[in-house]
Specification:
Layout lengths: L4 H28 L4 H41 L5
Length: 82
């Protein structure tokens, strides 16, 4: 699967971003750990909620217009075929 550049090339930016997010998470945990275990527990509860909210916004901003555009393109391209 990784031998095929068609599949491996688009995956590289995603892998890089996931690595950087993991690195940032480790750094944040290191700095928050100076505040105590309660602070680490609070951060571990809040961060997934924030990530879910950001991903939902990204989905709405980037995904929904593409789906709508493809729907309307297909609909208007086949108007005269009835």
């Amino acid at each position: 699967m990784l031998d095929d550049p068609l599949l491996a090339r688009p995956a590289l930016p995603t892998v890089a971003v996931m690595f950087l997010v993991t690195l940032l998470s480790v750094a944040e945990t290191y700095f928050v750990s100076a505040l105590g275990t309660d602070a680490i527990a609070a951060a571990s509860l809040v961060v997934p909620v924030i990530v879910l909210m950001v991903q939902s916004i990204v989905c709405c901003v980037m995904g929904a217009p593409r789906v709508a555009a493809s729907y309307w393109t297909v609909k208007f391209n086949h108007v005269g075929e009835l």
